[in-house]
Design goal:
The protein is mainly alpha-helical. The protein has 2 domains: about 160 residues, Arc Repressor Mutant, subunit A (Orthogonal Bundle), CATH 1.10.10.10; about 90 residues, Winged helix-like DNA-binding domain superfamily/Winged helix DNA-binding domain (Arc Repressor Mutant, subunit A), CATH 1.10.10. It is about 45% helix and about 10% strand. The chain is built from 12 helices and 6 strands. Strand 3 and strand 4 form a beta hairpin. The longest helix is centred in the first third of the chain and has 21 residues. The chain starts with 10 loop residues before the first helix and ends in an 18-residue tail after the last helix.
């Protein structure tokens, strides 16, 4: 948020916002964002533009996005790091080549999800940024490594897998700060009766699969589900290694929105209503 977007009487309130159980202020997220931009700039200086042609999968599939021909960070890494590529991919550490610091695969992935905003990046896309022939599992492993680091350092964000791919998002326990800062609380969420019907179906039958949701009989049921995914009321849950081995469950944000402490407090279907 630009300084000009903040009202003068809100300056002190926002400056004093703190994350729970840690001394993280709003400025810490801004600093992390700037660091991600710096990593991205370093990659661009070495290789070229990283954030090119990022498009969500047309049908919301987890791995439907195709790998673009042309630019790949791995093309340069493979040339410069030929003797150490395997180790770099496995550990995600940066290395020096000819006295110059090269951006590590781990840093490339972190920069991509940090700067990607609302664009979900598939494992295939992330792997293609590391190298043209890099297995998707390398990208997934690096994402897991980043999330472990975020957890160990009690960072307010994490990389989450959604139907369209990976996104960097605020952890649930820090959502209150996000709400106070940017006004994205329950009152900002407006759902149509049709969307509520899909949400109620997921809540009462979770975990549910695509075929079950389509059985509701609404032609737009999957589009409504994608809306719920974007609102973070429903999330993707992997059941296996295949792209289609996924199901859908409600989130902690769903519980908060409906004033529930747990799923055990779900009302009976005939009184299920939006607060």
């Amino acid at each position: 948020m630009a300084d000009s977007d903040v009202l003068p009487d809100e300056d002190n309130e926002i400056d004093e916002l703190k994350f729970p159980e840690q001394d993280f202020a709003v400025e810490d997220i801004e600093l992390a964002y700037r660091q991600a931009l710096e990593a991205l700039d370093a990659a661009e200086r070495q290789i070229g533009s990283v954030m090119v042609d990022f498009e969500p999968a047309a049908d919301g599939g987890v791995e439907e996005e195709s790998v673009s021909d042309g630019f790949s960070i791995g093309a340069q890494l493979a040339e410069d790091l030929k003797s150490t590529a395997a180790a770099a991919e496995a550990s995600g550490t940066a290395v020096l080549v000819d006295g110059m610091r090269r951006v590590s695969p781990r840093e490339v992935i972190e920069a991509a999800v940090f700067v990607g905003g609302n664009v979900a990046l598939t494992a295939r896309k992330l792997a293609s940024l590391i190298g043209q022939d890099i297995d998707n599992r390398v990208a997934v492993s690096l994402v897991d490594s980043l999330n472990q680091s975020y957890q160990n350092e009690n960072r307010p964000y994490e990389i989450r897998l959604h139907e369209g791919g990976y996104q960097l998002q605020m952890r649930e326990e820090f959502q209150d700060v996000s709400t106070r800062s940017f006004g994205t609380g329950p009152r900002d969420v407006k759902l149509s009766p049709e969307t509520l019907e899909v949400l109620a179906f997921v809540a009462w039958n979770q975990p549910v699969q695509k075929e079950q949701i389509e059985s509701i009989g609404r032609q737009s049921s999957m589009a409504l589900l994608r809306q719920l995914l974007r609102l973070q009321l429903v999330e993707l849950q992997r059941n296996g290694t295949g792209r289609t081995d996924v199901s859908y469950v409600t989130t902690a944000k769903f519980l908060k929105l409906f004033g529930l402490k747990s799923l055990a407090e779900l009302p009976t279907a005939d009184i299920f209503s939006f607060k």
